[in-house]
Specification:
This protein has 138 residues and is mainly α. The chain contains 8 helices and no strands. Helix 3 (30-47) packs across helix 4 and helix 3 packs across helix 6.
Length: 138
């Protein structure tokens, strides 16, 4: 094979590699979408009788900001979560499995309302699921 042909073939192969799959951050709709569904999540948690009592001493805006950073970072976005780790921030709150599950339902509802694709919701929930052991106490 002539050197020019080899070079052309190498360039063609390099250009024809499949595009990298979209990140979860992108699949969630980016920062704007994450912010919208997180704000909706916080609204739901503060008004749902299954969870509202756990947030009576919580500043809504601060919680929303921390959750946006946490979800953005967890999904591969540019944000950095600077809050306390899950175990430390939930210690002695006595969060039950039912309360945890209610919050997961609220997150799913918020993402549904935002139009987040089901596959992206599942990917995010899979990333967040291990936090359950640090949050649920009883």
């Amino acid at each position: 094979m002539k050197p020019i042909s080899t070079l052309a073939l190498a360039l063609f192969i390099g250009l024809s590699t499949p595009a990298q799959a979209a990140s979860l951050f992108d699949d969630l709709g980016g920062l704007e979408s994450i912010t919208r569904f997180t704000n909706r999540l916080v609204d739901l948690t503060f008004t749902d009788p299954r969870t509202a009592h756990q947030f009576k001493h919580t500043k809504k805006e601060r919680l929303a900001r921390l959750l946006v950073d946490q979800l953005c970072e967890a999904s591969g976005g540019p944000c950095r979560y600077k809050g306390v780790n899950m175990k430390k921030s939930h210690i002695k709150l006595g969060i039950t499995e039912a309360e945890f599950n209610a919050l997961v339902e609220q997150l799913q509802q918020a993402m549904d309302e935002e139009g987040v694709p089901f596959h992206a919701q599942n990917r995010l929930l899979a990333i967040l699921a291990p936090m359950k052991r640090d949050i649920v106490e009883r």
